[in-house]
Write a structure and sequence with these properties.
There is one protein chain. By secondary structure, this protein is an alpha/beta fold. Among the domains are: about 100 residues, Alpha Horseshoe (Serine Threonine Protein Phosphatase 5, Tetratricopeptide repeat); about 80 residues; about 45 residues; about 120 residues; about 190 residues, Rossmann fold (3-Layer(aba) Sandwich), CATH 3.40.50.1460. A six-stranded mixed β-sheet has the order 7-6-8-12-15-16, sandwiched between helices. Helix 14 runs parallel beside helix 16 and helix 20 packs parallel to helix 23. The protein starts with 5 loop residues before the first helix and ends with a strand.
Length: about 850
């Protein structure tokens, strides 16, 4: 019963002990309490009760009872890190038990072998146990044994065998009331889905398992470990690190299993390494190595040593000793049949290359490269990365480019299984090294055109296809409605000066639930077969328009000037310096949004000149006088490009990629689309431009006051030709897809826009921070603007800084005047800036707005 209803089992066992039971009954009661404490509580209490259970079994003179208790005690001792004692208890248990009991003891010893990473021994004990359990028609223990065997198969990379065992076990579980075991089976299926490369299904199953455990009131440390692994593969390493550290703290608080603590530390070390925190990774991995060694868990210790070596290499500690250590780890992992062996060989080869040891590097990289032909996507990515480094060491630019192309194709296919735009964006981080290798090779061997192709190959890929539209999930829709209500109440309370911690906690809970459900969505689109074509770009640009794509190689900005039938390359400044200057400009614009800051204007203009030198360099002299499209890297998305002197007076638009600009350029406006004007609450001017625009566009749909509610706004925006939204904007750096515009019934967030069948052809966001984006993955951007572009929007006007509401009104009216005259958004915005007063306030307001896309 302890794995059907743990709380009830614990209560009954304590009640039985209070009733002065016979030795056999007391033995069972102490064993149940020991199991509960071992798996869900304090391990010291578990060992106390299990020793009492064994004493009672000895007094009862029952060999089978004693064997059963010895098996439970053996598991507890191993989880406490006392491996030698635990295995000795199993030896005595196997010797004492007979028939059916002995098979149960063998199953539990197989579980311990799995915990220790001794997979061959685990499979052997399960092989001996399963026929006996089946013959005894012991459904529960047979299902447990099949689930364990499947888990061992997964550890060895045998996904198909694991799936077969999980399926057989699941059929047996369906005939029982073992709710905890059923939750464990769902968790295990999640792990299998992850091993086969299906991240959305893995996340859904792990969340379902967590809900089941929560109903039983049991801790979920193994689930925490597995979810960390999935989160890291999905590009969510910071969340994995937070989950691992929180679970470790909780485990320490209850005196839980030492084995699980070591595994959580290993997960935290991996996550810290992926976040770029090498020192935290070293500390966590070193402690995990010591714990695993003390627990005699060589398989796990070797995996922890791999992470430790990776972290030391990331911290710049490359040495011949580190190459030898990585090679030794690779050899051990290969002898275990561990799927991580190629990763260790790649690491040894990479460190050897850094030291100039080309022969050693080739030997290790050749081993790692074998994994490129089969296995899950990330394993094949490892193989192609090794192959690319081999080609680079051999001086073969063609070989580098071919390996990078094949590796990124694998990652493309993997990304397209992900339905959520956030997961697609973050997954690109796994291709960053291949993209950088290809860019360096193309710069050396192929000239500016090839560099442009490879710059585009891994830039804004999430915008190439729309995210999978969220299903009509009633729980998701009700969660969004509840989120809006809570957020609206919290905002009202803040404005009245009332405390809001309870509302904020509930808002965060709802956000986690919504985000979790969107991550369960599987991708539907195939990989983008419409590869970027330089010739097509140049044809569309013609002789009048120039596209300036900024690529970054080894920290230096490379300017690719496209137009008039050719691509030219210029070298500009350092990206880090440009980022610092852009932050200074943003601070200056924030000051200029308030009257009385005119003295800051020369400082901001000087910063604009420095930005031009760093970002355009000598290319600025070759821009001519026509329209310019700027394609910046993700880390420069906050640059107010109209502030740069050579761009200030011209028609200027911004695009996340050249491919995105081409798609926008070729997007046709809706034949019968309407105009929609939306005015949200709380604006200083009350959205004063909206009534005047309503008079200008006689047939426009106007949504204001109580009519400006999220469901109605989304309904009218779908398929509109032009939308103008005057509403307070909030950018969420911590969770960019919850960046929002304030409506009458609460915030409209990026998740809402992703439900549109077709977003407006043109959209104007006349509020602060609507063009702010979060740079994630390799070179991806998440936020309001990038949510609209793949959904059918060809042009957006938005703001990347706080602005003065009163100064926005005349700018917006002048912008619409240009649109009435048939101008594009970029042309109308250029003319609108020129029409404003020349004071610092109005100039800063104009610079803060940018036109995105090509409409």
């Amino acid at each position: 019963m302890v794995f059907a209803d743990p709380g009830e089992a614990l209560a009954r066992a304590r009640a039985l002990l209070d009733a002065d039971p016979s030795p056999p009954a007391a033995s069972v009661a102490h064993q149940v309490i020991g199991i509960w404490q071992r798996d869900f509580g304090d391990l010291r209490l578990a060992l106390h009760h299990l020793r009492r259970a064994r004493e009672c079994a000895a007094r009862a003179d029952s060999a089978d009872r004693e064997a059963d208790v010895l098996a439970t005690l053996g598991v507890a001792l191993v989880h406490a890190g006392r491996t030698r004692e635990g295995l000795a208890a199993f030896e005595r248990g196997v010797a004492r038990g007979g028939g059916h009991t002995r098979a149960r003891v063998l199953y539990r010893r197989a579980y311990v072998w799995w915990v220790l990473g001794r997979h061959r021994e685990a499979l052997e004990d399960v092989r001996r146990a399963v026929p006996v359990l089946r013959q005894a028609e012991d459904v529960i223990w047979t299902a447990r044994a099949l689930t364990l065997r499947a888990t061992v198969h997964l550890a060895l990379g045998s996904v198909e065998r694991a799936e077969a065992d999980f399926t057989a076990a699941e059929a047996l579980w369906d005939t029982t009331g073992q709710e905890h075991d059923k939750a464990d089976a769902v968790e295990s299926r999640g792990l299998a889905a992850f091993r086969s490369g299906d991240v959305p299904v893995a996340l859904r199953l792990l969340d379902e398992a967590e809900e089941r455990y929560a109903r039983l009131g049991t801790p979920t440390f193994m689930l925490n470990i597995r979810r960390c692994e999935v989160l890291m593969a999905a590009g969510l390493a910071p969340e994995a690190l937070a989950e691992a550290d929180a679970a470790t703290g909780k485990l320490d608080g209850i005196g839980g299993q030492s084995t699980r603590k070591a595994e959580l530390l290993l997960a935290a070390a991996r996550a810290a390494r992926l976040t770029g925190d090498a020192h935290t990774a070293i500390a966590r991995a070193a402690l995990a190595v010591r714990l695993f060694a003390g627990q005699r868990r060589t398989w796990w210790e070797t995996h922890a040593r791999l992470v430790l070596i990776e972290a030391r290499h990331a911290a710049g500690r490359g040495s011949g000793r580190l190459v030898a250590d990585a090679a030794a780890v690779a050899g051990k992992l290969a002898s275990f049949g561990a799927p991580a062996a190629p990763e260790a060989s790649l690491l040894a080869g990479r460190i050897a290359l850094d030291l100039g040891w080309t022969a050693d590097a080739e030997r290790h990289l050749a081993v790692a490269a074998r994994s490129r032909r089969s296995g899950p996507p990330l394993a094949r990515m490892t193989g192609w990365a090794a192959q690319a480094l081999r080609a680079q060491a051999a001086g073969s630019a063609r070989g580098v480019l071919e390996a990078c192309r094949r590796g990124l194709d694998v990652l493309d296919d993997h990304r397209m299984t992900l339905g959520a735009s956030e997961l697609r964006a973050r997954a690109t981080e796994q291709g960053a090294e291949l993209a950088a290798l290809a860019q360096r090779a193309s710069l050396v061997s192929g000239g500016p055109r090839r560099l442009l192709v490879w710059s585009e190959r891994w830039r804004a890929t999430v915008l190439s296809t729309p995210p999978t539209r969220p299903p009509a999930d009633p729980e998701l829709l009700s969660g969004m409605t509840a989120f809006r209500e809570i957020a609206s109440r919290a905002e009202a309370a803040r404005m009245e000066g009332r405390p809001v911690p309870a509302l904020e906690r509930e808002q965060r809970r709802l956000e986690r639930e919504i985000r979790s459900r969107t991550m369960h969505i599987r991708g539907e689109a195939l990989g983008d077969g419409d590869r970027f074509d330089v010739g097509r770009l140049l044809q569309r640009l013609g002789d009048g328009v120039l596209l300036v794509e900024l690529a970054v190689l080894d920290g230096r900005v490379q300017v690719l000037l496209c137009g008039r039938g050719r691509v030219r390359r210029f070298e500009a400044g350092w990206l880090a310096e440009a980022e610092t200057e852009a932050e200074h400009v943003q601070a200056g614009l924030r000051r200029l949004a308030h009257p009385g800051a005119e003295a800051r204007l020369p400082v901001v203009e000087a910063a604009g000149r420095r930005l031009e030198e760093l970002l355009l360099g000598p290319a600025a002299a070759h821009l001519g006088g026509g329209p310019v499209v700027i394609v910046p890297p993700g880390r420069l998305h906050r640059v107010p490009w109209a502030l740069l002197p050579s761009l200030r007076e011209r028609v200027l638009s911004v695009s996340p990629s050249a491919g995105s600009w081409l798609r926008a350029r070729e997007t046709a406006p809706p034949p019968d689309g309407c105009h929609v004007l939306v005015r949200g609450p709380g604006l200083a001017t009350g959205g004063a431009e909206v009534p005047e625009l309503a008079g200008r566009y006689g047939c426009a749909t106007v949504l204001e006051e109580d009519e400006a509610r999220v469901p109605r706004v989304l309904e009218e925006l779908d398929g509109a030709a032009l939308a103008h939204i005057a509403a307070h904007g909030t950018f969420r750096a911590d969770s960019p897809l919850f960046s929002s515009l304030r409506m009458a019934d609460g915030p409209i967030v990026v998740h809402d826009f992703e439900r549109l069948d077709r977003s407006p052809y043109r959209i104007i966001l006349s509020c602060c921070d609507t063009a702010r984006l979060a740079s994630v993955g390799a070179d991806e951007l998440l936020g309001l603007v990038t949510a609209l572009l793949p959904l059918g929007t060809a042009g957006v006007v938005a703001c990347s800084a706080p602005v003065n509401d009163a100064a926005v009104v005349p700018l917006m009216l002048a912008l619409h005047k240009g649109l009435d005259a048939g101008l594009s958004l970029a042309e109308a915005l250029r003319d609108a800036r020129a029409s404003q007063p020349g004071d610092a306030l109005h100039q800063a307001t104009g610079w803060a707005f940018s036109a995105f896309g090509a409409a």
